[in-house]
Write a structure and sequence with these properties.
824 residues, five-stranded antiparallel beta sheet
Length: 824
């Protein structure tokens, strides 16, 4: 039994290996066929051959010149091969057609070379070149054929042919890029679908007159074309292909007018029956063939039509599923197209929602800042106001009294409680003092009436201050609620927001061409952003990336094409055989920042009034900030920490630095009437070009060490929270790899004892450093400052040291043979 189970398992594993091997071989064969037909231009030669022998109204050939011109403008290297195919196709008709095709090409090239320099937009002028070239060449040929005479009919036919070449040039210019499905990821527009159908139908007219065992090749291929599009796109696309193909064939051969009805009807039925997959579409063609054959005026026997339709059905059955799937992804209305659009919209939605949620978190932080402050200060502020009230009363009454020493020094508690009782009795008695309290005050104080008057007078100001404080508290609460409301609205909006995608179709095709020319098999390229330093590209690759091809080959190639280092940000691998890998490529940082921090609280305590933060803002910016709250201890720590938290939230939302600092200052100045200030020292480092912006608000200077030089950076601004409106001075500088940036609070800068010039002392200490490790530098400078004070820490101390270094990518860029200018 166990042997049987093992045998069954071995057979299953062998079957899976066989399927995987067959899948790899089919994929390899498809790649080779694509390289042979598409990259080497064999498909264009075959199309040129058929268009070279395609005729309209039995003697007009408007297809050859537009096709050559379109290939010349879009695939110039393939133009000689295409011209050769056109000439061979025309030669199968007659020598005169060959000479006419060659003459048209030569005349166009000469006219284009001579006149193109006077045209600003060559593409717009191209159809007019083709029109006049065709008209002139046809008139010359008719003049020679008719022995130096041209009739009105000949001139009209030459004009008709030239008009057709004009229209076909516009059609072929849109159709040629669509021939390679691998190089096309956008959905087809209706105009593009019709243009492609017209081109394919025009190509099939080159098969008119061909037959195999008395079966018409043109009928077989035209019905196969209708079947293919009906199966992929449904009834609408199928009937459109049938009408357009039948119309082209009827213009080429009047006897083929009957085919228009058959092709249109079969496209409609095949599209309606596509739910039955290929068999259903095939049944639609057979029904249309029988019905039209029975009631039509066709000279072709019914049995012959059935044979031709059967061969077309056979071609549909052997058509690879990969081809139909790729076509379906680009045609609107199909399920494959809907899935592609949903995948794209899902990513755009996620990115946008994340950004809106960041803004929502900013407003949430602002709301918390306003609402939490009253809880912090309510009890303490009430005692302070009472003490301030009594101090004003005693200043007006007891200051000059001879019993001041006895009342406030020897009997402080009794005097304090009595005056507080008078205040409370005035409050409860609505301005009338009870007799009992009055007698008690007269017994204790020699200036009772004066004290009562002073208390009554100060009580008015006290009530006014209480009312104002209550209004400010309510205002802060109102602002907090409004900010919270905005945060909630933006949070809800984040779930519904949608954003249209920027069009990068041209750049996507150029990247795809460059990678495929290198020999890589790429299924699809999607560009979401080409901004310098913020590149975002998604690729679909038919491989499992088992050997790290994305990191080792594709990313280095993109680095050379785009001119900056590209890395693999994320990769999703599909487990089943012959699956795809979805890879996200992003810009890498040109520079990295290595930091070191040392900090200490006053007197060696645990809570410092200084706060610091190192924030990486996306892939481009790195922020270093130090804030010093007024005073020391928990209160100063709260203010400085709150300042940095607000600043961090606002900066992470993408708001510009100066606006962010002004917003924080406004919040600090509005949320309290106390004199509570905090300094801010902010450095914004660009990780792409190493430029730095310093924004210093009441902070100490910073220093940049570059080799043996030490540069000082300083600015003059009042601390934050003093005034609501102020200008932020921005000091810009350019850092280099190896530079050391030293930022510090005033406890470090002004800490050394017996030093008259702090600037010179700090420059000398930084210059004398023998190490370049940021953490060691921070520790050494702090230790040196504390040593000058004999080990006593007299103020909060914070120092942050940052070292700028080149970001060395793991894999170097691979030069591409033909550099692409992608960013315009």
């Amino acid at each position: 039994m166990e042997k049987a189970e093992h045998s069954f398992i071995d057979q299953g594993s062998n079957l899976e290996e066989t399927k995987l091997e067959v899948s790899k071989r089919l994929t390899s064969l498809q790649v080779k066929l694509d390289q042979f037909f598409l990259q080497k231009g064999v498909a264009l030669i075959l199309i040129g051959f058929l268009l070279g022998r395609a005729l309209i109204l039995s003697h007009l050939s408007p297809f050859a010149l537009p096709f050559f011109v379109s290939v010349y403008m879009m695939r110039r290297k393939k133009a000689p091969l295409v011209l050769l195919g056109l000439l061979v196709g025309a030669f199968t008709l007659s020598i005169a057609n060959t000479a006419f095709t060659f003459s048209c090409a030569v005349i166009f090239l000469v006219a284009f070379r001579l006149l193109a320099r006077f045209q600003r937009d060559e593409i717009k002028a191209l159809p007019y070149y083709v029109f006049f070239t065709s008209f002139a060449a046809r008139c010359v040929f008719l003049y020679i054929q008719n022995r130096e005479t041209i009739t009105l009919y000949d001139g009209m036919m030459a004009g008709v042919e030239a008009s057709l070449t004009f229209i076909l040039t516009l059609i072929f210019m849109q159709s040629i890029p669509l021939l390679s499905l691998k190089k096309r990821k956008k959905s087809y527009k209706t105009e593009e679908v019709v243009s492609l159908i017209i081109m394919l139908a025009s190509v099939l007219t080159g098969t008119i007159g061909w037959s195999i065992y008395n079966l018409s090749v043109e009928h077989i291929l035209s019905r196969y074309l209708v079947l293919l599009f009906a199966f992929v796109g449904g009834a609408t696309v199928g009937s459109t292909v049938g009408v357009v193909t039948g119309l082209i064939f009827s213009l080429a051969n009047v006897s083929s007018f009957y085919q228009m009805s058959l092709l249109a009807f079969s496209g409609l039925l095949g599209g309606l029956l596509k739910e039955g997959r290929r068999i259903g579409t095939s049944i639609g063609l057979l029904i249309a063939t029988v019905l039209i054959g029975m009631y039509g005026d066709s000279q072709t026997p019914l049995i012959q039509n059935i044979y031709e339709s059967s061969i077309a059905i056979l071609l549909l059955l052997i058509t690879p599923q990969q081809l139909t799937s790729k076509m379906a992804k680009h045609i609107p209305g199909t399920s494959e197209f809907a899935m592609e659009q949903q995948q794209y919209m899902r990513k755009i939605r996620d990115i946008t929602v994340h950004r809106v949620e960041q803004f929502s978190s900013v407003f949430q932080a602002l709301s918390n800042s306003f609402s939490q402050y009253d809880q912090w200060r309510d009890g303490e502020q009430e005692d302070q106001e009472l003490d301030f009230f009594l101090s004003n009363v005693t200043e007006k009454t007891c200051q000059s009294c001879f019993k001041k020493e006895q009342c406030w020094a020897k009997n402080f508690d009794k005097t304090y409680d009595l005056m507080k009782k008078v205040m409370d009795d005035y409050d409860h008695g609505e301005g009338v003092l009870p007799q009992r309290t009055h007698r008690e005050l007269e017994t204790h104080c020699v200036r009772a009436k004066k004290v009562e008057g002073a208390i009554y007078q100060e009580l008015t100001f006290y009530y006014a201050n209480q009312k104002l404080r209550k209004q400010v508290k309510e205002s802060r609460k109102l602002v907090a609620e409004q900010l919270l409301g905005v945060s909630e609205v933006m949070g809800d909006f984040a779930n519904e927001i949608k954003r249209e995608r920027e069009n990068h179709q041209k750049q996507e095709e150029m990247i795809l061409d460059a990678l495929q020319d290198f020999g890589l098999e790429i299924e699809q390229v999607e560009i979401y952003c080409l901004e310098e330093g913020n590149i975002d590209i998604d690729m679909t690759i038919p491989t499992n990336n088992s050997h790290g091809e994305c990191e080792k080959i594709i990313a280095p190639l993109l680095s050379d094409i785009l001119g900056e280092t590209i890395i693999v940000k994320k990769a999703e691998y599909v487990a089943y055989p012959n699956g795809y890998t979805y890879v996200t490529f992003r810009s890498d940082k040109s520079y990295v920042v290595k930091t070191g921090v040392a900090h200490a609280a006053k007197g060696g305590g645990f809570i410092s009034g200084d706060s610091y933060s190192m924030i990486e803002l996306g892939a481009r910016k790195y922020a270093i900030a130090i804030s010093d709250g007024m005073g020391n201890g928990e209160r100063a720590h709260h203010e400085s920490n709150e300042t940095l938290k607000l600043l961090q939230k606002i900066l992470q939302s993408g708001i510009e630095e100066k606006v962010a600092i002004k917003s924080v200052n406004s919040i600090l100045s509005l949320r309290t009437t106390d004199e509570i200030f905090s300094t801010l020292d902010l450095a914004m480092i660009d990780l792409q070009d190493a430029s730095v912006k310093f924004l210093k608000i009441g902070s100490t200077p910073s220093f940049i060490k570059r080799g043996n030089k030490v540069l000082k950076v300083e600015s003059s601004n009042l601390p934050m929270g003093i005034i609501q409106e102020f200008d932020v001075d921005v000091v810009s500088d350019q850092l280099k790899a190896g530079d050391l940036l030293v930022m510090m609070s005033d406890g470090i800068f002004e800490g050394p004892k017996h030093v008259e010039n702090y600037d010179l002392w700090m420059k000398r200490k930084i210059k004398e450093l023998q190490t370049e490790d940021p953490q060691e530098i921070a520790d050494l400078i702090m230790e040196e400052v504390i040593r000058t004070r004999s080990g006593v820490i007299e103020d909060d101390m914070t120092i942050v040291v940052a070292k700028i270094e080149h970001n060395t990518p793991k894999w170097a860029a691979i030069p591409v043979s033909k550099r692409k200018a992608l960013i315009s």
